[in-house]
Each structure stands twice: as structure tokens, then as C-alpha cells.
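Sharing a chain and its predicted structure for anyone who wants a worked example. Both blocks are below, sequence first, C-alpha cells second.
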Amino acid sequence: MNKRHFLKVTTALAAGTLLSRHAYADTVEPTPHQTNWAGNLRYHADHIFAPKSVPEVQQIVKQSATLRALGSRHSFNAIADSTTNQISLAHLDSIEVNEKALTVTVGAGVRYGDLAPVIDSKGFAVHNLASLPHISVAGAISTATHGSGVKNGNLATAVSGLEVVTAAGDVVTQTKAQNSADFAGIVVRLGTLGIVTKVTLDLIPRFDMTQIVYRNLSMDKLEHNLEAIMASGYSVSLFTDWQNHSINQVWIKDRAKAAATAPIPPEFYGAKAATRKMHPIEANPAENCTDQLGVPGPWYERMPHFKMNFTPSNGAELQTEYFVPRNRGYEAIKAVETLKDKITPHLFITEIRSIAADDLWMSMAYRRDSLAIHFTWKPETPEVTAILPLIEEKLAPFDARPHWAKLFRIPPATLKSRYPRHDEFVALQNQYDPNGKFRNEFINHNLYGQA
């Protein structure tokens, strides 16, 4: 991504002037999506359509020369941006549970936090959730957003079917059973290949979870125990500010073994059990975090870090994330740690978590069990912009893959080399969208660029 483009799409709210939004009947939102949720990105579309039905989506697709889908706006780069038209699917909010097939089909506007209580009440769950329940199902799967767990694939691995409006405006259904040859390339679609209107997810039986936090784990413990530590629960997260050669907090989420709160072991590899509820950023109040201290609760109220009705994470922030092979995870952590004095002044917190390998072509965990190193930055765009190439250089020996919806500077030729199915995915784009209706500058640069 060239400097001019990067600065254009990451400028803070104070910079620039809002482009006008023109009201088009009832299909256009007046001014709801001027920025992303964190405020670091100002969208450039003149028209933001908000259809209430699939036929309306079809009409919008037919009349638009270019169009990008806008999800719950939890992206930090320009992947959803457009200089012409965006389409919000927020009004497509149906939820249909098929108890016989063990699936749920949701409209493209449904968020995980809205879906979870519905399926839980019917005795079901999904296998994984991200740290934020605020994100939409369709947007999350499109970018391979992931959740955590050594045995848990990213959110898109639960997808068994999609309803899509094609570039020609036709409605097609794509399923894992019927589109077996290229379904693994269709799911993580990066906003291309058509506008998703419905998603079908596989379900599992519901379960309860507990969450326990430990404080001050020496990084030395990761050298020979990283795999065991990451496998110590259903989902495990390590939080660090990179100082003092220490993991500030270890969050262990596990299936509840009983209905009552179980005794908490006082130590975990030398770390001490927290005696109060914690926020990953220790200076922040913990009220917006999901319950801890070993108290059992529904899976969807423990698996995310943050509650649905509260501000997620820190709010005003930037985010970056890189995926490396988990069997080289400790090496990668050590490499990043050498930059600690450059990173920490601009950092809120780093989270380290694991994701199981999958076969989805453009997934960051494609065919390798992964460790994700996630940076939640202070909203300091110039400073973060300068740090990213330094981190990427340190992670280059591990063929790090950046999260598609977060900030990165890795050149397109390098990105291409890290995705074995890159060329096949580009071929799918050319097949499903030969005129590039669903492409934008981000896609053109990162998937078709050479720099």
C-alpha cells in the first residue's frame, strides 16, 4: 500500500472533510456510516444504500457500476471503502434455525451478539466467537475473522452455505455440498464475488463456560510450554505490553465442568490468579468485559472478551494483527519483543491467541495452525504507520499473514507469495465479477498490485 493511499484511509477524524451523502428514496441511509466504529477511517462513498429485502439488493447491484458491502464497520483499513457506492445489509436480520439439519441461516446484517441468544435458547451454539460480539456474521467470515482455540477454526469454518447476489443481479445459492470444488475459495471472499445476503452456519450443542484470569506470566515460560499454555482451555489469550519480559494477563476460557463456581488454582506456570475482574488494558474499568473468576455462564457470555451492550475494546484505537505458524510462535514473539521500546509508547495492549488450520484459500490460517499476534494501538496514525514495517520485517522469516481488515504495510507481491491459492482466488474473482463491480482500490492494490 503506497504512502498516499495509506494515509488517505487511516487519517484520524480531525482530518479531511465529509463527502456528501445523497438521499435515494428509502434505500439510502442519510448519514449513518461516515466513519468506521473506531473513528480512524473516513469512508468515501457518495451513496450508502440500505435495502430491506433481497429484491432491493438485486436492484441496487444492477444499477451500480461499482459497489462495496459495508458490514458492522469493525475494519481498520479501506477493505470496505468505495469512492462511489456502499451497501449496508443491516436490515437483513432474519434468523432461521433448522434443528434437523443442525444449521442456522442468518441475514447478512445479523451480528453474533444477536444470533447467540436465539440459538442458545434452542439448545445450540456456534463453535467459535470473536472477542467482540458486535461484528456481523457476513462481514466476519468474509475476512476470516477468527476467535481463538488450538482446536477451533476461524468463524468462516462454520459456513456451509451462502445466498449471494451476483454482479448481474441474480440470486444464487452456494453450498459446501454442491460447490465442493471451489467453496473453500468462495467463503473468505474479501467483499468480492457478489453481495452476500444470507449465511448458513453449522451448529453444535450449547454449553456453559468459565473464564479465569492469571497475572504476570514470565515470557520464559513460553519457550518450552507455549503449546501447552495455549491448549490449557477451550480458548486462551495472552495479553502483554511487551515490557518486563512478561505476559501481563492470561485469559483461560473453558467448558464448565459443573453448575457451581469451581475452585481456582492459585498459580498457572508461576502466574497468580486474579482476585478481581480484569480488563485487558489494566487501566480501564472491567465492567464491559465478560464475567470471570470462574463463574459459569452461557458460552456466548464467556467466549468473547467484551459484552454486547458495552463499548468493545478501548473504543478509539487502531488495530493490527499478524498470523505466524504456531510451531514457531515463541520465535516470533521473541522477534517482536526486540522492538518493545518502539512499540509500547503507542500501544494499548497486545493479545496473542491461537487458531486451528483450515482449508479456506484466503484465510490467514490456511493449512497451518497459527498464532496470531494482535496489536491494539493508541489512535496515533503517523506513529503506528512508521512502526508497522519494523514489525513486518521482524516477522518476515515466519511468512506472517496480516488480518485482511486491519492495518498492514506488506507489499502485494509478498502477500501473494504467502497465499498458495492466491492466483486461483483471483481467477474466481474474474469468473464471478469479470468487470470488477465489487473491487475497490484496496482489492486492486493488495490482490492485483505488484509493488
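Comments welcome. The mean pLDDT is 91.
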